[in-house]
Please model this.
Amino acid sequence: MIRKIGVLTSGGDSPGMNAAIRAVTRSALCNGIEVVGIRNGFLGLVNGEYVPFDRNSVSDIVERGGTILGSARLPEFRDPKVVEAGVEKLKGFGIDALVVIGGDGTYKGGNALTQHGVNCIGIPGTIDNDIPGTNFTIGFDTALDTVTSCIDKLKDTSSSHHRCSVVEVMGNKCGDLAIYSAIACGAEVVITPETGYDEEDVLDKLKYLDSIGKNHAIVVVTEKMVDVNSFANKISEYTTYSGRATILGHIQRGGSPTTSDRVLATRLGVKAVELLIAGVGGQAVGIENDIITAHPIDEICKMKATSRKELYRVFEKTV
Ligand code: F6P
Model:
């Protein structure tokens, strides 16, 4: 039987993490379980940055972006000795089990702790939407809204100036933010890890659109694919468009979570606590076809991301 659980956020923050922290805290407390907020991810876990939570600790946060717990990346947590040091700290504080909110690195940390005897449940919190075992991660919907509204604004100005905007969006190695926003904004070109990048092809396509009288163009690119500044210069040389690069950057990670992210985070937080109460650890929760599900974290870590072929087909048919 568990008496005290910890909750932490790790990796890049995402809007909706606070709603998940709140759900974990409130649902544990109402089951008579004590809750400890662990600050700054696995770094705080190892350093003992523990804050006892009551219901008021998580008041007025459901609508707030970021994470009240703070976040950090700790690559050293791959080292079993560091994991053991973390387990000792948790035991010293009487923490029986843990909810970890974050992306794949966070899941690996949660899996390692479970293997060392501390049951952990992973909640997918990242704007990248790159976690298998769930249709959506917490924060993706909000980030997508931010990207969409930024590209809408860029469209206004680029169409007034016969420009081609090359917009770099986040996603790490996942093209979801790019393909969803490209469809939502009516972009002309999308470049993602799934599409690959053929510079000549893209320039030819833009040249063609230019030749048939398209006044402006939007190219959405997943980060780490292309140097968007030099690519924008090439567009200026190769077409009559003035190529301009915009890197949206960390603005995509901020902002108040959408309704959808708040509800998703709350449902996943409640499920995580239910699993821990049932004595289950080493699982990652997710949403699949509107059903809240759980899968072993080690399997999730080995799985490939869902194919988006249908979305790319939809995009190509509506360019
Ligand atoms: O994983 C979320 C994410 O925002 C990625 O999209 C991006 O590649 C990375 O984090 C940026 O990390 P940092 O904020 O540490 O530079």
The chain has two domains: 4-139+257-304, 143-253.
